[in-house]
């Protein structure tokens, strides 16, 4: 029954989306666009921004309803939201351990749900397809700007999330290791070496540390472009597929990709959170030292 | 060096322009991300995690209570078992005492009965002996009278008291012999 309902919902989504398809010849641009025609550059209201606000509003709405009357024996929405939160928390706990999970869950949990809601909202009919037509004086189509654009398909948002994570990563890394411990973690030889071996290994580990620093610098870029690329690519694919058939059958080629996109939405949210958690784990992990102490 | 930096800067600027990364948009999105994090922390994760912690504490407390109750039950069972064992022991002792008392009583009663039976027997024997003596005396008297009467009738003589006495004595001596 659940499978049938899900399938029907996706069919309906695809059908509605095709009914609202963008003008012929329109290609979703790589960049986000201002929502209102003639909007000044300094006013940061873009079509992806509207989607982000929408997702924030949805998250706030459900959070408030679910946590308004918390009961010891949960039911309904409270039960569902608790299940979601607890599942993500337990997943992070198995990865990071109890201490780090407690410290970092507020960020990783928020990022996971935020990306997930944004990705899924990108599938709602009208996103990328309802907008302003720009025509010339003779009434010919010149350009089109969608009012809504998937939040994750805007590099501004993915970079904002990645850089926020990068700053927090430094904060957690320094607070867990201390300044000396942080640099030792990156540059110091791993394992217990002494004498000549230590002297020989120092340059190698300094080089490895340098590579590690480059890797750390690249992480936010990789995180932001991975998410952006997947979500933008997905939307682009759906829109392109919809142009392959006449308007009211346009949903047919895109239909299988709606299922894929639902899966990708979840996977990408998970990947962002998972990679972030792994990066934190790598820098804050004291496993060897603890073993050495014991 | 400056050239390299300038080249990189222009490359980066080109990438930003291509992907529409704009300072105002970027800052606005950072604000959005921070807003989402704060909102979720305050309205969702905070209360939910607090509730989960409370529930965990409640479960732990329940488990603790269960353990305590089980311990109390075990203690109570042990106390009950000890009380039952003690009661059994006491009952056994009472039974032993009762048995011992009953045996002594039985012995005493048997002794009394035996004594009483002996007394009855002795009395009966004495009575029987007295009766026999009485009957014997009566028989002797009757026999003497009959002998004297017979003698008187045979001889046709009136017997004096001395005769009667002598005849009696003679006949009795002969009977007894």
Q: Output the radius of gyration of chain A.
A: 24 Å
Instruction: Please give the count of helices of chain B.
Output: 3
- Output the radius of gyration of chain B: 66 Å
Instruction: Name the helicity range of chain B.
Output: over 70%
Order of helices and strands of chain B: HHH
Oligomer: heterodimer
Largest sheet of chain A: 2 strands, antiparallel
How large is the share of residues in beta strands of chain B?
under 5%
* Average of pLDDT of chain A: 82
* Overall SS class of chain A: mainly alpha
The helix/strand order of chain A is HHHHEEHHHH
**How many discrete structural domains of chain A?**
1
The amount of helix of chain A comes to over 70%
Rounded to the nearest angstrom, the distance between the terminal CA atoms of chain B is 178 Å
**Poorly predicted residue ranges of chain A:** 290-294
Largest sheet of chain B: none
Beta-strand content bin of chain A? under 5%
**How many distinct helices of chain A?**
8
Total E-strand runs of chain A: 2
What low-confidence regions of chain B span 5 or more consecutive residues with pLDDT below 50? Answer: none
- Name the chain pair whose interface involves the most residues: A-B, 47 and 32 residues
């Amino acid at each position: 029954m659940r499978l049938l309902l899900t399938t029907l919902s996706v069919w309906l989504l695809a059908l509605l989306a095709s009914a609202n398809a963008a003008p012929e010849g329109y290609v979703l641009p790589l960049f986000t666009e201002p929502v209102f025609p003639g909007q000044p550059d300094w006013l940061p209201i873009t079509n992806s921004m509207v989607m982000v606000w929408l997702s924030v509003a949805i998250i706030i709405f459900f959070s408030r309803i679910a946590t308004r009357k918390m009961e010891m024996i949960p039911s309904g929405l409270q039960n569902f939201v608790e299940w979601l939160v607890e599942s993500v928390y337990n997943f992070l706990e198995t990865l990071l351990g109890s201490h780090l999970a407690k410290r970092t869950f507020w960020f990783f949990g928020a990022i996971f749900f935020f990306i997930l809601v944004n990705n899924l909202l990108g599938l709602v009919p009208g996103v990328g397809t309802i907008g302003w037509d720009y025509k010339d004086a003779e009434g010919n189509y010149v350009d089109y700007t969608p009012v809504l654009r998937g939040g994750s398909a805007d590099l501004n948002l993915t970079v904002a999330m990645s850089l926020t994570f990068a700053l927090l990563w430094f904060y957690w890394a320094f607070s867990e290791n201390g300044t000396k411990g942080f640099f030792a973690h990156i540059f110091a030889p791993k394992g217990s070496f002494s004498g000549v071996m230590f002297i020989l290994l120092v340059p190698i580990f300094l080089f490895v540390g340098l590579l590690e620093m480059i890797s750390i610098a690249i992480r936010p870029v990789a995180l932001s472009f991975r998410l952006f690329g997947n979500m933008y690519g997905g939307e682009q694919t759906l829109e392109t597929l919809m142009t392959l058939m006449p308007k009211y059958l346009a949903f047919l080629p895109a239909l299988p990709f709606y299922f894929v996109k639902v899966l990708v939405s979840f996977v990408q949210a998970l990947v962002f959170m998972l990679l972030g958690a792994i990066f934190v784990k790598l820098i804050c992990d004291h496993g060897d030292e603890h073993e050495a102490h014991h | 060096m400056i050239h390299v930096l300038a080249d990189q800067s222009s490359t980066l600027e080109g990438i930003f322009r291509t992907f529409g990364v704009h300072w105002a948009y970027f800052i606005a999105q950072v604000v959005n991300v921070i807003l989402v994090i704060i909102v979720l922390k305050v309205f969702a994760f905070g209360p939910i995690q607090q509730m989960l912690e409370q529930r965990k504490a409640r479960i732990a407390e329940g488990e603790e209570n269960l353990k305590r109750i089980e311990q109390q039950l075990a203690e109570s069972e042990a106390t009950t078992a000890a009380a039952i064992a003690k009661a059994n022991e006491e009952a056994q002792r009472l039974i032993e005492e009762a048995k011992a008392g009953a045996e002594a009583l039985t012995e005493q009663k048997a002794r009394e009965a035996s004594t009483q039976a002996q007394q009855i027997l002795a009395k009966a024997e004495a009575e029987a002996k007295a009766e026999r003596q009485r009957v014997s005396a009566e028989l002797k008297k009757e026999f003497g009278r009959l002998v004297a009467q017979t003698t008187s009738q045979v001889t046709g003589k009136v017997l004096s008291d001395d005769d009667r006495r002598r005849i009696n004595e003679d006949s009795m001596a002969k009977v007894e012999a």
